[in-house]
Amino acid sequence: GDDVDDIYGPKTEAAVRQFQTDQGIMIDGVVGPETYGQLGID
């Protein structure tokens, strides 16, 4: 896999968008409150 580099780049955004799609939540590529909630993060 890819190394973690602490940068929110295009690969991270694509992964977030895919997660949002899979979860049926608003797709914006941003890890906001709704996405955090689906991740189980407070």
UniProtKB/TrEMBL annotation:
It comes from the Bacteria. This is Peptidoglycan binding-like domain-containing protein. Residues 3-39 form the Peptidoglycan binding-like domain. Pfam families: PG_binding_1. Gene3D superfamilies: PGBD-like superfamily/PGBD.
